[in-house]
Design brief:
Layout: E1 5-10, H1 20-37, E2 41-44, H2 58-66, E3 73-80, H3 86-99, E4 104-109, H4 114-119, H5 127-142, E5 147-150, E6 155-159, E7 173-177, H6 182-190, E8 193-196, H7 202-221, E9 231-239, H8 243-250, H9 254-263, H10 278-284, E10 288-291, H11 293-307, E11 312-316, H12 323-342, H13 346-357, H14 359-391
Parallel strand pairs: 1-2, 1-11, 2-3, 3-4, 4-7, 7-8, 8-9, 9-10, 9-11
Antiparallel strand pairs: 5-6
Helix pairs in contact: 1-12, 2-3, 3-5, 6-7, 11-12
């Protein structure tokens, strides 16, 4: 059994009627709790429009939350590369890597919201190519190279970074993908990890193994090796003590979330012709787990089977439930889902079985030891009584 890592992917998605300051504070509080519960990673998104995904700079949030945590790794999930000059973004990420003592990670994508690109005059059709062109330069800068490159939207003239990664290692990097082969092709060609968004959607699940093979073939062609431990799968999860409680929890905010996907997002999570309860639709189509830890375990097992294996499962943070119930979901995953995929209890189970199988012998030994002490005490009392009697 491989050791599966766990984390969260925070777009974030907050209803427009809530206090935005408190929304951002709760995002940071969530990561602080996750650090205590043993989660491995948290990835924070970048968006600039629509009023729902309100973190414009994941780097700023990472810098703040790094001061409140000890262990959890923190990634930009993802930076939209067409929106940035590669040298400036690479320099910021390198600084962040030092400020977090190596816990910072870098996620790359083309930009999810068409509205973001439109405000900057970026053609949607060019975003993927722009992302790959910028990423290639950023990775070279991360490696300490001096880069000269002239594109139609940026220029690097003997550009270099002042710093190398903290600790002499590398900055962990992941490229986002969904269903199309463009993400796997970029990851394989450039030698990055792979981050599969909405991995539990049926169309993404069906293409998971094929996309990994595309990445492997591209990597071999360009002198890289893909490692499944660097493949992250992202899924929707809310768990509670019972399925009934889980559905009761998500009734708080899932309608706002569904409305967002109908009106704003281009990701096909909720089709416009969907009727009825969005929570039931997500569960019926396999897009989400709304249930118990056992339901979550089954979803991760299905992902493992469909993909052939991956290294990290990221829970998409969705704010379906009240904050305290959301925290309960994350804690229950840590308590009851992690052990299944991290082999945490193997020695405990062996020890427990060993003791139970020998319980009869142990009880006999304990009873014999107790009886021996009783008899010893009685003998000592008898000797003391005899000695006292002789003295009188």
């Amino acid at each position: 059994m491989t050791h599966l890592r766990f984390g969260t992917f925070i777009p974030p998605i907050h209803p427009v009627h809530e206090n935005p300051t408190l929304c951002i504070e709760r995002d940071m509080d969530l990561i602080v709790h996750m650090d205590k519960w043993g989660y491995d990673e948290a990835w924070i998104g970048e968006h600039h429009s629509a009023g729902t995904e309100i973190i414009a700079s994941p780097e700023l949030l990472i810098a703040a939350v790094a001061e409140r945590t000890k262990h959890i790794k923190l990634g930009t999930g993802v930076n939209s590369l067409p929106y940035h000059h590669p040298l400036i973004l690479a320099d910021r990420i390198m600084q962040l890597h030092h400020m977090t003592r190596g816990r910072a990670m870098f996620g790359a994508g083309p930009g999810a919201l068409v509205s973001d690109a439109k405000m900057m005059g970026i053609e949607t059709a060019k975003q993927r190519d722009m992302m790959e062109e910028a990423l290639e330069c950023i990775l070279r800068l991360f490696r300490g190279e001096t880069v000269t490159h002239k594109a139609d939207w940026f220029e690097l003239n003997e550009a270099r970074l002042q710093l190398r990664p903290y600790g002499g290692g590398q900055i962990e990097t992941a490229t986002a993908c969904m269903v199309s082969p463009s993400g796997p092709r970029a990851a394989g060609r450039l030698g990055t990890g792979l981050m599969s968004l909405s991995a539990t959607a049926p169309e993404a699940l069906a293409s998971a193994g094929k996309n990994w093979q595309i990445a492997v073939e591209m990597a071999a062609r360009h002198g890289h090796t893909m490692d499944r431990k660097d493949w992250r799968m992202i899924g929707l999860v809310h768990i509670a003590e019972t399925r009934e409680q889980a559905f009761k929890d998500v009734a708080f905010g899932i309608d706002d979330w569904a409305q967002y996907f109908e009106d704003v997002a281009v990701l096909p999570m909720i089709p416009p012709d969907r009727k009825g309860d969005p929570a039931q639709f997500l569960v019926n189509t396999g897009r989400a787990v709304i249930g118990t830890p056992d339901d979550c375990i089954r979803q991760v097992e299905a992902l493992e089977k469909a993909s052939g294996g991956f290294g990290c499962y990221l829970i998409t943070d969705h704010n379906w439930a009240r904050f305290e119930r959301k925290l309960n979901s994350y804690e229950m995953a840590a308590r009851y889902v992690f052990p299944r995929f991290q082999n945490l209890n193997a020695n405990r189970e062996l020890s427990n079985t060993w003791v139970r199988e020998r319980q009869k012998d142990f009880k006999t030994s304990a009873q014999a030891a107790t009886q021996a002490q009783i008899e010893r005490h009685a003998q000592e009392q008898a000797r003391l009584a005899a000695k006292k009697s002789a003295a009188e």
